[in-house]
Request: fold
Amino acid sequence: MDKPISTNSVKHRQSAHDKLELSADTMVNLASAVFNATQESIVVTERNGTIVAVNPAFSAITGFSAAEIVGKSMRTLQSGRQGRAFYREMWDQVSRSGYWQGEIWNRRKNGEAYPALLTISSVPSGLGQPTYYVGISADLSRIKRSELKLDRLAHHDELTGLPNRRLLKARLDQALARAVREGETGAVVFVDLDRFKLVNDSLGHSAGDELLTLVAKRLRNGLRAGDFLARFGGDEFIVLLEQTSGERAASVAAHLINRLGEPFVLSTGDEIFSGASVGISLFPRDGTSSEEVLQHADAALYQAKSAGRSTYRHYSSDLTRHANIRLALDSQLRRALSRNELVLNYQPLVTLADRRVFGVEALIRWNDPSRGVIPPAEFLPVAEETGLIVAIGNWVLDEACTQMQAWQSQGLALSRVAVNISARQFRHPEFAASVARALRRAGLAGEHLELEITEGTLMDHDATTLATLEALKALGVRLAVDDFGTGYSSLAYLKKLPVDTLKIDRSFVTDIGTDPASAAIATAIIGLGRCLGLEVLAEGIQSESQHAALLAGGCALGQGHLFARPVAPDAVPGLPGLRRRRAAQGGTRRVPACEACPAPE
Reply:
């Protein structure tokens, strides 16, 4: 039997129904509050696009108040960036599904176009036909600005603001494809500053950064509006020229070299002369990929540097062949160092008055098992370029010091062994320490080692150079200026730097009997050395007439084939003019400090 329905139950259901009625009212109020409080723009339109309601966020984003926009068409907001096809497709989808979402460009009251993420929904009537449309959108301006900023950081150099290597590759790929497709010619102009490292080393990296920004600006101002300029890295810049010719590329290169040859004035007041070298490759003739074209422009740049800098060179297939030869030679040279194929020969240093041998210069040779003896001119430039010269230079120092100590122990009257030092080896931060290690291992006093350094290297007499020279002098090592007279001969640096010897370059010695200018230069160097209290040694003496002219001019020391060619270490004791020290009571007598003086009998 069913239970009777209690009066309390009926009252409970009626109370719940009253609460549902109140919740519906609350929901209406809540919807109104959301409409007014949300940060997204909300606009309600009739079927024909006439605006009937907007929320406060709409007004804040667009600048239109409700009073200004209600009753107007949604076309008022169109930016013009999307065409009729865009809107036709949008409304076709709304008609089919009652919904559309996507990015759109609208226009604010002040005329500014802005991106928005828009959602359109139709509000159907009881018959299923849309009565209203509701558009909800978010302003994407800030997000788009962030995206643009990130994109710029990814594709532009932070220091100069120029496109970076990534954007360059993309543009070059496009230019290559277009050139192949349309039968056109383009060019890559590879620009590299000539003396940028000197600026960094002497004035600091902040000065170097400022110089790069000035260079970028000057390059940009020297190009046409349509030419593409990028910073490739470090002090390297790339100019991309489309629809051009080899002649115009060369003209652009010469123009940029001239512009960069003019002085730059930093904010500190320092005036900088940098200069630039340029390599040019044409595409698609010189390559059909961006990597290949850039590689060939770099090869041409290397040739421009080798030609004396501040010039340009075009790429040719010979450059690739030479580059491959250099690469193979570097690999072979590294193996030669590990297999003890490098040897030292020694050429005597003599006093011109009596042809007495007082020292030797160490000269490196490569004794290749298959090709025989390879002269240093063929492999040292490659070693210098690749950095292998540091390891080779350390080996030469160790070998020469050890051999010199052995000769000393044999009683030979040799007071010095001269070793040539490359610019890259000298600038290595551990150079002075490597000299100290070589002397220590051999047990050789520093006074018996003379380091020959080119004056071009010594001209960069910044704080690092001076510190290195002072460290070497603290070891007792002698310092000679090699090839003096061929570079930047200057009384200023001779006065400041602790050098002991000037070596007259062989080019002046060769012509001393036939060219009055060469004779005058040699005489001037001899006089300069005497005034500064320096020894002067002439290299490359091959004839008696050269010997006589130098001796008459006051030169005390020399070397050359007239006296002896370079010989192997075991042949040195038999050199004409080389004496042995005589044993005296209490030990062996040493050669006088001034090697130009005759040895004691």
